[in-house]
Amino acid sequence: MSLTTGDKVVLIGTGAVGSSYAYALVNQGICNELVLVDLDTEKSEGEVMDLNHGLVYAHSPIKITSGTYAECKDAAIVVICAGAAQKPGETRLDLVSKNLNIFRNIIKSVMDSGFNGIFLVATNPVDILAYATWKFSGLPKERVIGSGTILDTARFRYLLSEEYDVAPTSVHAYIIGEHGDSELAVWSTANISGKLIAPNLTDARKEEIFVQVRDAAYQIIESKGATYYGIAMGLARITKAILQNEEVVLPVGSLLEGEYGHNDVYIGIPTVIHRAGRKDLVELLLNEDEQEKFANSVKVLKDIQASFWT
Ligand SMILES: NC(=O)C1=CN([C@@H]2O[C@H](COP(=O)(O)OP(=O)(O)OC[C@H]3O[C@@H](n4cnc5c(N)ncnc54)[C@H](O)[C@@H]3O)[C@@H](O)[C@H]2O)C=CC1
Ligand SMILES: CC(=O)C(=O)O
């Protein structure tokens, strides 16, 4: 069966992240049909009403409805933002059992609809849940994408843009690895217009910037209860890259099969995104320290996987 070709998006989970993503899609005119699904149907229906009331001022026409899993049948992309979120003091990995159970049911319901498109997963712990989506759905790896380190990389580029007074889009730098505490900054290739950043910063300053990136979620959750605008913009960016067949490189969650010397794990790495989902992985040349940190991040994720998949 060939890939569904329209640009219908079904969003599962219309909480803080899901509703912000829907709002970003409408404002940027990324798709022309959006269906909202949530266990709490009253909430998704309310979100649909609210979004529709802004349509007269939207970027371009879009049909927004609430629906059931049957709507996934002809969807190009199913985006999953459903499940539990971190409470203050919790790590992303604390959510694993709860959200794996939720995902078992969600993926089955989506696949039972006859879905033949691309999954984009945001629910945490996102790397484990992207892997679970790939396993539960039976879809090829190209059609299951996690949000990976799209948000962490955006945070990193923003902080470096502040450091150097240039636009974040002119900073070329990646956070890779787990979307979580074991992630790493690839300082060895981070640059502005080809000029390497690392030689101009002390180790102490680099560590300060990295810690700000790594711990941003904890800080935001402590101050306002949840993070959602940043990831919503990141998810909208990935959605646009897929629907517009951009072949752009984005740091998303992709399955490793020998790349970087590891396999059988979803993790945040630069990936070429096109209309069929993931195209190629871009293998960064990591230095020894980065390779060790990346290997540790893989191990953190694999140890968790091992307790759920033999
Ligand atoms: N990947 C990333 O970079 C980020 C991921 N997240 C994650 O996104 C997820 C959602 O976060 P929030 O929107 O803040 O949470 P939320 O609690 O505001 O929303 C979750 C929604 O999921 C729905 N839901 C729960 N079980 C469901 C099921 N079985 N079927 C359908 N809907 C169901 C709930 O009714 C609720 O509307 C969390 O796991 C959070 O950690 C949050 C920020 C960044
Ligand atoms: C909550 C989360 O995963 C983040 O903001 O990075």
Give a verbal description of the structure.
With 310 residues, this protein is an alpha/beta fold. It has two domains: 8-146, Rossmann fold (3-Layer(aba) Sandwich), CATH 3.40.50; 150-305, Alpha-Beta Complex (L-2-Hydroxyisocaproate Dehydrogenase, Chain A, domain 2). The protein contains nine helices and 14 strands. The protein has helices at residues 16-28, 41-52, 96-112, 126-137, 150-164, 203-214, 216-224, 229-243, 288-308, and strands at 8-12, 33-37, 63-66, 77-80, 118-121, 144-146, 171-172, 175-176, 184-185, 191-192, 195-196, 248-257, 263-274, 277-281. The strands form four sheets. Strands 3-2-1-4-5-6 form a six-stranded parallel β-sheet, sandwiched between helices. Strands 7-10-11 form a three-stranded antiparallel β-sheet. β4, α3 (96-112) and β5 (118-121) form a beta-alpha-beta unit. The longest helix is centred in the C-terminal third of the chain and has 21 residues, at 288-308. The radius of gyration is 19 Å and the shape is globular. The two termini are 30 Å apart. The active site is at residue 179. It is found in: Cytoplasm. InterPro entries: L-lactate/malate_DH (IPR001557), L-lactate_DH (IPR011304), L-lactate_DH_AS (IPR018177), Lactate/malate_DH_C (IPR022383), Lactate/malate_DH_N (IPR001236), Lactate_DH/Glyco_Ohase_4_C (IPR015955), NAD(P)-bd_dom_sf (IPR036291). Its EC number is 1.1.1.27. The modification Phosphotyrosine is found at residue 218.
Compose a concise summary of this entry:
This protein folds into 2 domains: 8-146, NAD(P)-binding Rossmann-like Domain (Rossmann fold, 3-Layer(aba) Sandwich), CATH 3.40.50; 150-305, Lactate dehydrogenase/glycoside hydrolase, family 4, C-terminal (L-2-Hydroxyisocaproate Dehydrogenase, Chain A, domain 2), CATH 3.90.110.10.
